[in-house]
Amino acid sequence: MSNSSLFIWGAATASYQIEGAVTEAGRTQSIWDTFSHTPGKIERAETGDIACDHYHRYKEDVQLLRNLGANGYRFSISWSRVIPSGRGKLSQQGFDFYERLIDELLQNEIQPFVTLFHWDLPQPLQDIGGFTNRDIAGWFTDYAVITANKLADRVRYWIMLNEPSVFAWAGHAEGFHAPGVKDLKAFWATTHHLNLAQGAAIRALRNVDSHLLLGTTLNLQRSLPADDSEESAEMSARHDDFWNGSFLGPLLSGSYPERIEQEIAPFLKPEDLDLTKQAIDFLGINHYQRSYIEADSSRILGLRNVSPPKNVRRTSFDWEINPNEFRDTLLWVHSNYQCPPIYITENGAYFEDQVEDDGQIHDKARIDFLDSYVHAMLEARSKGVDIRGYFVWSLIDNFEWAAGYRPRFGIVRVDFDSLKRTPKDSYHWYREFIEKNRHLS
Ligand code: IFM
Q1: Is the CB of 240 under 6 A from ligand 1?
Q2: Which of 7, 11, 160, 222 could form an SS bridge with 395, CB 3.0 to 4.6 Å?
Q3: What is the pTM of this model?
Q4: Is residue 417 part of a domain?
Q5: What's the CATH number where 407 sits?
Q6: Strands ordered across the beta sheet of 291-295
Q7: Residue 2 lies in a domain
């Protein structure tokens, strides 16, 4: 395992979004299989059944990384593939796939960054409450330890959770993501149990191998009120608390933001905050946009996210383009928390791609976006933020959750009929950028 201190330039993906092969080699159903097969939940009724067929084409995808000059790849493990019933017996066949993938990466000098939970909870665990059940802390810890025992000889970087705020909010309050729950109590229970599961797993993994580098990934986006009303100002502050503070606080400071202590109280046991607060080796930060918040008493949390104002530049997802905000978010987390080294574990954009007659994709908008965001990150770095790596989202176009395959975030196009991969201009731009900045340390 290389111990390089070079800056990591990489790309990221997640299991359900790219793997396909959902019934192969003993894999069972995750909440995303259930959800995507439920009528009305996903645009055009699309599912991850085949996705990018990465399960069978992983060698080709690793070659894309290699030709890019990437020295890091962030991907996630499908819990349902490696422990089909969620708890108990592991599936060696399931682990075989990840062992093959990791070996292929290492042979190509690409450092694997493994995410343990990128939202695809095994359905059997959801059937007994999923993250609303406090026992999830033990189930997740067992899964983490089993997985680390299998892969720790080859994997150094371990990310516990991906964007717990999105999983709690979209999956348990607004209900447009799996498991599709819309319940305030479930939302707060899930928030706390995510923190608990993460803390318990980190503590246990320290005993598996003291050389592992352990972290987690938060999607940091600061909030601002969408109008001048007092209510929206209050709701914007509340949004900031649950989106950022309720995950940064328990992990880095051992406390919840004051304004939400009352909501968490019913689920909190006296020793919990000692467990949620863990020394981590790195913090993964995903960044896409900031949140414009409006008070809305008809919504479960009393607020809603609205589109950015008219004059604001935006991606095809209606997400604000604002690299300075990215820089400022990094400076903000650096000065407000005792922060370990940071990896930008996701950043990227969906823009409508045009395929030219010769099959090429001249995605200038994505290049401009990435160029400005990478420079914003380097500016934050030059101002003292300890940033060690950057992963573009995403290596390949993939299944964008409730929106299906329409929003394309890849620097490589995937034709979802033939599954052919075609590097876009942004891929070539990133390759040249990496080449020039390879020796950043
Ligand atoms: O596709 C998602 C990813 O799974 C988590 N972060 C944001 C991406 C774009 O929406």
Answers
A1: no
A2: 11
A3: 0.98
A4: yes
A5: 3.20.20.80
A6: 223-225, 291-295, 303-306
A7: no
346 CB within 6 A, ligand 1: yes
Angle formed by the axes of helices 136-151 and 92-107, nearest 10°: 50
Structural contact between residues 145 and 208, judged by C-beta atoms closer than 8 angstroms = yes
- The rounded Å distance from CA 104 to ligand 1 centre is 25
Query: Which one of the listed residues 104, 320, 346, 400 is annotated catalytic?
Result: 346
Ligand 1: nearest atom to the Cα of 219? 6
Q: Which residue segment(s) compose the domain that 226 sits in?
A: 8-437
Is the distance from the beta carbon of residue 19 to the nearest atom of ligand 1 less than 6 Å?
no
- Can 346 be counted among the known catalytic residues? yes
CA-proximal residue: ligand 1, atom 9 (nearest): 400
Q: Measured on CA atoms in the order 15, 16, 21, 23, is the torsion positive or negative?
A: positive
Reported as a single tens digit per residue, the pLDDT across 70-101 is 999 999 999 999 999 999 999 999 999 999 99
Taking the CB of residue 303, how many other CB atoms lie within 10 A of it? 24
Whether 286 lines ligand 1, by a CB cut-off of 6 Å, is yes
> How far is ligand 1, taken at its centre, from the CA of residue 262, in Å?
30
Q: How many domains does the chain have?
A: 1
